[in-house]
Amino acid sequence: MVWILLRGVSPTLLCFPPWTGPYVQWKQMSNGSSITEFLLLTFADTSELQLLHFWLFLGIYLAALLGNGLIITAIACDHHLHTPMYFFLLNLSLLDLGAISTIVPKSMANSLWDTRAISYTECAAQVSLFLFLMSAEYFLLTVMAYDRYIAICKPLHYGTLLGSRACVHMAAAAWGSGFLHAVLHTANTFSLPFCKGNAVDQFFCEIPQILKLSCSDSFLREAGLLISTSFLAFGCFVFILLSYVQIFRAVLRIPSEQRRHKAFSTCLPHLAVVSLVISTGVFSCLKPSSTSSPSLDVVLAVLYSVVPPALNPLIYSMRNQELKDALRKLVTEWFSAATVFLRSSASESQCMT
Predict the structure, then answer these.
(1) What is the pLDDT of residue 312?
(2) How far is CA 175 from the centre of its chain?
(3) What are the φ and ψ backbone dihedral angles of 287, each rounded to 5 degrees?
(4) Are strands 37-39 and 117-119 parallel, antiparallel or unpaired?
(5) Which helix (H) or strand (E) holds 37?
(6) DSSP category for residue 199
(7) H or E element, residue 14
(8) CB of 302 within 8 A of CB of 267?
(9) How far apart are CA 116 and CA 125, in angstroms?
(10) For residues 179 and 248, what is the distance between their CA atoms, to the nearest angstrom?
(11) Exposed end of the chain (fewer CB within 10 Å): N or C?
(12) Measured distance CA(171)–CA(169) in Å, rounded
C-alpha cells in the first residue's frame, strides 16, 4: 500500500490490492463526502411492471398538464375571472405544474431506462424545488382560506381588503416563504455527512428518507428545524380551520338557498384540496415508526405529491359554474380555430392540385 499526500487534500489511500475494491467503496461512503449519486426506490423488479408504472405516471402527468394548463389559460384569457379568488387559483395551478414536473418525469425516465441513479446535485435540486413549490402551495392555500373568509363573512370590505396590490403581495409572500423554507431545509440536509449508504427508500429525493442516511449525531440539527417548521405549518392549519368555522357559520345564516349553494360551491373545492394535502402530508410525517414500510411510504408520497396536482383542476371546476363556462368557451374557441385551419389547409391543397 502506498500513501500519497496531495496539496490541499487529506491523506488518501490510492493503491490497494484488487480484493480491497469493496473496502474502498465502503470507506468513501462512510465519510459522506464522496457520494456522487443516490439510488432511488423502484416500483417493480420486472420490466413489464416498470413499463406499467411509466404509462400510469405518464397518464397522470398528462392529465395534470392538461387540467392545470386549461385553468391557467382560461383565467388569463377571460376578464370575468380576473378576481382575487381566480388569481390565487392561477397561482395554485402554476405551483401544481411545477411540483409534479419536478419529480414525475425523473421517476418515469428511471422506469423506462431501468435505472435507479440520480446524481447528488440533481437530488439536491429536486429536494429544493419540490419543497419550495409544496411549501408555497400550503401557504397559498392558507391565503385562499383568508380570501374565502373575507368574501363570505365580510363581503362589504372585500374590495378594500383584497385589492389587486394586496393580492399580489399575499401571493408573493406565499412564494417567498416557500423559497425561504426550501433553502433552509435543503442547505441543512445536504450539509450533513451521509454514512449509511446512498439508497433512498422513495421514488424521489425526500428529506425524511435522505435523513435516514445521515449520521445519528448530526440528525438533531435537521430535527430541530423540522420541529420549528411544524409549528408554523400547524399555525396555518389552525388559521384555515378557524376560517372555515366562521365561513360555515355565516353560510348557514344566509336565508337564500341559491346564495348558500353558491357560497358552498366556492368553498368546498378549496376545503377538499386542503384536506387532501394536509391529511396525507401529516400522516406521512407523523405515522408511527412501527407501521412504517417502504410500500406505505411510497403510497403516501404518491397521495400528497402526485395525486393533488392531477385532481385539483377537476375539484375546482366540478362545482364552479363560472370556471366551467370559461373552460367550455376556451375549448370551443380552440376547436373552431382548429376547424378553420384544417379547412383552409384542405382548400389550399386542392388548389395546388
Answers:
(1) 85
(2) 13
(3) -65, 145
(4) antiparallel
(5) strand 37-39
(6) B
(7) strand 12-15
(8) no
(9) 17
(10) 33
(11) C
(12) 6
Q: Does the model's pTM come out above 0.85?
A: no
Predicted local distance difference test score (pLDDT) of residue 105 = 93
CA–CA distance from 205 to each of 57, 151, 189, 202, 308 (Å)?
17, 39, 11, 7, 18
Q: Do the Cβ atoms of 138 and 55 come closer than 8 Å?
A: no
- Residue carrying C-alpha cell 374590495: 159
CA dihedral 40, 301, 216, 187 (to 10 degrees): 80
Q: Which spans in the chain are helix H?
A: 21-31, 47-77, 84-113, 120-153, 158-161, 164-189, 207-211, 219-252, 257-286, 294-305, 307-318, 321-352
Cell of 113: 431506462
Closest by Cα among 166, 181, 170, 172 to 142: 170
Q: Are 40 and 204 in contact (CB under 8 A)?
A: yes
The rounded distance, in Å, linking the Cα atoms of 266 and 320 is 7
In one-letter notation, the amino acid at residue 221 is R
Per the DSSP assignment, residues forming a β-bridge with 13 are 3
- Cell 386542392 -> residue: 350
What is the per-residue pLDDT for 11? 37
Q: What's the pLDDT score for residue 51?
A: 87
Q: Which residue is it, cell 449519486?
A: 37
Please tell me what DSSP assigns to residue 45.
S
> Do the beta carbons of residue 91 and residue 171 sit within 8 Å?
yes
Backbone angles phi, psi at 327, to 5 degrees: -65, -40
Q: What is the pLDDT of residue 46?
A: 77
In angstroms, the CA 33 to CA 36 distance is 8
The whole-number mean pLDDT for each consecutive block of 10 residues of the chain, a chain of 353 residues, reads: 36 38 38 71 79 91 93 89 91 94 92 88 94 92 92 88 92 94 88 83 87 71 70 86 89 80 76 77 63 74 86 79 80 79 70 63
Work out the number of other CB atoms within 10 angstroms of the CB of residue 125. Answer: 15
Q: How far apart are CA 43 and CA 341, in angstroms?
A: 44
Task: Give the cell for residue 47.
Answer: 420490466
Q: What pLDDT sits at residue 287?
A: 63
Rounded Cα gap, residues 127 and 337, in angstroms? 41
Question: Cell for 265?
Answer: 360551491
